[in-house]
Amino acid sequence: MTQRISGVLSPVVTPFNADYTPDAGRFARQCRWLLANGVGLAVFGTNSEANSLAVPERMELLEQLVAAGVDPARMMPGTGACAFTDTVRLTAHAVKLGCAGVLMLPPFYYKGVSDEGLYRSYSEIVQRVGDPRLRVYLYHIPPVAQVGISLALIERLLKDYPGIVAGVKDSSGDWNNTQAMLERFAPQGFDVFAGSETFLLANLRGGGRGCISATANVNPAAIAALHRQWQGADADALQAGLDRIRAIFARQPMIPALKHAIAHWSGDDRWRTVRPPLVELAPAQAASLLAELEAAGFSMPGLGS
Amino acid sequence: MTQRISGVLSPVVTPFNADYTPDAGRFARQCRWLLANGVGLAVFGTNSEANSLAVPERMELLEQLVAAGVDPARMMPGTGACAFTDTVRLTAHAVKLGCAGVLMLPPFYYKGVSDEGLYRSYSEIVQRVGDPRLRVYLYHIPPVAQVGISLALIERLLKDYPGIVAGVKDSSGDWNNTQAMLERFAPQGFDVFAGSETFLLANLRGGGRGCISATANVNPAAIAALHRQWQGADADALQAGLDRIRAIFARQPMIPALKHAIAHWSGDDRWRTVRPPLVELAPAQAASLLAELEAAGFSMPGLGS
């Protein structure tokens, strides 16, 4: 078995053309820039607008990324959809392409579903994919999906699919929940990723493996530096520096803000395009974002080169 | 222009085989039974588990239904997905097959999205489908989708796409909202469907066109009778009778309860199967449902014959 993916991953924002088609060339360049800055590729995450892409669009884009020479061993594509048949298709495809793992949302249309129903969903998917190389990272993001992954569900899945069910991304924003996952499951080799760099240091100190964070799209080198140096004397200072930048982005709608910053520092205005139902930043939001980032001494070196 | 669809529609429950594949033959028979009982076909609704089906599964099943001779002029398939590219594909396909209209969820993964973003989504879809036969029924179901359709959004869409944007299904459960839609938009030829028969009489009295209701799957003839006789002297008594049956189903998880009743009265146990993340009724729930229905004198005549 190859070594599991760990560290800092970015839910890579997806570049669109004016007609909303994905731009595979720009996507590959962005992924290379992130890798060069020490960050892995959680492509097709929430911040990637993956759920605004059709299944064939996602499959084609992943194939183009691999064909462009971007290393699938550094990828953890999102594959969870409302229909388990879609999730099976996306997951089998990602495994076949050699991806290190997949980040799997629970089915999120029906609300108030039972752990039994979610167990059946994950179980059916694992069995249908039927590939020992599969590594599933459960995606707990109740503020968006509104359907969460309980500790009891993790326990049952880990028991029945050890090795395959490899970890979790906890985007609950609730440190107590992350801590409970670390205490109960990390000793069994279950890899806990914090849902943002806000909890990166705490997660690493608690036995977690890293973070998968929106702002790793724009501040990758500094976040990766904390991951490398978390046992150093200046770890808390590094964490505080990350928090300052994160807070600036978090004052705006996150995905349009990430794309606006990339457009600004790459000099490529096409990056501002988001698919409906999202909307790009309004001029006042954009001005405020850039003014705050510049005042903080923030920039994105090497972008667009 | 042909006459618009109206009256009582059923979000037809989807029959699955043991391996969770849809059973097209059983689906066509169920649709014929509903039509014979005076109810139209809002196939691929929430109660159809449509969001648990992949796009190609939905397209194939719709084609099989039309090929089996079920009249597309009596159909309003659900086509709204998270990715507008999926919605365009499903919608264009339904229009091409001759469906009377489509019931269109807003994109529902991202929460807290703006009316501007939802307007762009619907607008993009209408323009890309680009077919004057298209009739869009907006699907407002905030308890499930968590993304709703405001009065301001309806106003803007109606202004820009008159005739194409044809109506709404209001599953908010909030009569004040339905009433506001009726008052503001029904006079402009906007067809308001209540989200359940609970509000059927009130909706018809207020100028609405009917209802699209889960329990039209199991109690079609009685609901259709109220639609025909709503101006009669016994309308309130008919409404009260519908409410009694609805309440029995509403005490259980709705979709598994509908399927359990169909399995029971058709004598075909395969009907109990739901796709994950849903779970069929537990034995105690099933016993309670059937006991209450039998005590109310309920049955499903002609089913499975």
Oligomer: homodimer
CATH C-level label of chain A: Alpha Beta
Evaluate the radius of gyration of chain A. 18 Å
CATH superfamily of chain A: Aldolase class I
Structural class category of chain A: alpha/beta
- Write the H/E string of chain A, N to C: EHEHHEHEHHEHEHEHHHH
CATH topology of chain A: TIM Barrel
Strand content of chain A: 5-15%
Detailed description of the structure:
- The structure is a homodimer of 305-residue chains.
- With 305 residues, the first copy, chain A, is of the alpha/beta class.
- Chain A has one domain (7-230): TIM Barrel, CATH 3.20.20.70.
- In chain A, 45% of the residues lie in helices and 9% in strands.
- Chain A contains 12 helices and 7 strands.
- The first copy, chain A, has helices spanning 24-36, 55-67, 84-96, 115-129, 142-145, 151-160, 175-185, 200-205, 220-228, 235-250, 254-266, 283-295, and strands at residues 7-10, 40-41, 102-104, 136-140, 165-170, 191-194, 210-212.
- A 7-stranded parallel beta sheet of chain A has the order 2-1-7-6-5-4-3.
- In chain A, strand 3 (102-104), helix 4 (115-129) and strand 4 form a beta-alpha-beta unit.
- In chain A, helix 3 runs parallel beside helix 4.
- The longest helix of chain A is centred in the last third of the chain and has 16 residues, at 235-250.
- Chain A is globular, with a radius of gyration of 18 Å.
- The mean pLDDT of chain A is 97.
- The A-B interface holds A 20, 46, 51-55, 57, 82-86, 89, 106-111, 113-114, 116-118, 120-121, 124, 143-147, 275-279 and B 20, 46, 51-55, 57, 82-86, 89, 106-111, 113-114, 116-118, 120-121, 124, 143-147, 275-279.
